[in-house]
Design goal:
229 residues, alpha/beta, Cobalt-precorrin-4 Transmethylase, domain 1, Methyltransferase, Cobalt-precorrin-4 Transmethylase, Domain 2, 2 domains, 5-stranded parallel sheet
Length: 229
C-alpha cells in the first residue's frame, strides 16, 4: 500500500481563510511538504502554522522550487520534487503539500501532482480560496455580474491583447514586469483599476487607480481591472 499526496490550497494569506477540510487533511497527514529549502522561511508554512500549529511536530519535506522561466531548470526541479515526494509515498506515508491560493490556479504544486500521477501514485487536490476572490472581498467589490466574463491573466507574460478582452481582468504574478504592466493600464480608458499587495498578510496595501500602483510592488500583488458602468 502506498501513501497519498494531497495538494492543499491554504488560501491567499489570511490563516482564517484555510478551509476546514484543508486543516483536517494537514492534521491527518504524516508529512508536510513546503515549496522551499527552509520551512520557516516559506510563506505557505508561515500562514499554515498560525491555523494548524500542530504541523511543527510533523516531519517536513522541504522542496526546492526555483522561480525561473528557464525550461530545462524548471523540468529538472519538478522532476526532482516528484522523486522526493514519491520516496515518501513509497513508505506508506501521506503527504500534504502546502500551496498558496488554490492548487488548480497557477500553482507550483500542479507540476508535482501530474508527475506523481504519471508515476502510478495517488494524488488529490484540496481546494483553497483563490487570491482574486479574497482580494475582491477585501476591496469590497464584486468581480463579475450578469453576463460579464472573467479573465485571469498571468501578467509576467505578454498581456496587451488580453487587456482588450471584455469584462473583468485579473492580473496575477506581474513581478518584475510591474512597470510595463502599469504603463499599459494607464493607457486604458473607461476602466477602474485596483491592486492589493500581500492580501491578508502583514504589510497588506490597497491601491485604487493605476496611477497609484508602485512599480516596485512585491511578488504577492494582484490587480483587478473592471469596466466602468
Amino acid at each position: 500500500m502506498q501513501g497519498i499526496l494531497y495538494g492543499v490550497g491554504i488560501g491567499p494569506g489570511d490563516p482564517e481563510l484555510l478551509t476546514l477540510k484543508a486543516a483536517r487533511i494537514i492534521r491527518e497527514a504524516d508529512v508536510i511538504a513546503v515549496p522551499g529549502t527552509k520551512k520557516e522561511e516559506t510563506v505557505a508554512w508561515q500562514i499554515t502554522v498560525q491555523a494548524v500549529p500542530e504541523i511543527t511536530e510533523k516531519e517536513c519535506l522541504e522542496i526546492h522550487m526555483p522561480m525561473t522561466k528557464e525550461k530545462t531548470a524548471l523540468k529538472e526541479s519538478h522532476d526532482a520534487a516528484a522523486k522526493q515526494v514519491a520516496a515518501v509515498l513509497k513508505t506508506e506515508k501521506n503527504v500534504a503539500f502546502l500551496t498558496l491560493g488554490d492548487p488548480s490556479v497557477y500553482s507550483t504544486y500542479l507540476y508535482v501532482h501530474k508527475r506523481i500521477l504519471a508515476m502510478g501514485y495517488r494524488a488529490e487536490m484540496v481546494s483553497g480560496i483563490p487570491s482574486f476572490c479574497a482580494a475582491a472581498a477585501r476591496m469590497n467589490i464584486g468581480l463579475v455580474e450578469k453576463a460579464e466574463p472573467l479573465h485571469v491573466i498571468p501578467a509576467s507574460y505578454q498581456i496587451e491583447d488580453a487587456l482588450k478582452l471584455p469584462g473583468t481582468k485579473v492580473l496575477m504574478k506581474a513581478g518584475k514586469k510591474m512597470q510595463e504592466v502599469k504603463k499599459q493600464l494607464l493607457q486604458m480608458e473607461n476602466t477602474e483599476t485596483l491592486m492589493i499587495e500581500n492580501c491578508g498578510m502583514p504589510g497588506e496595501k490597497l491601491y485604487r487607480g493605476a496611477e497609484e500602483i508602485p512599480e516596485t510592488a512585491g511578488y504577492y500583488s494582484l490587480i483587478i481591472v473592471k469596466e466602468k458602468e
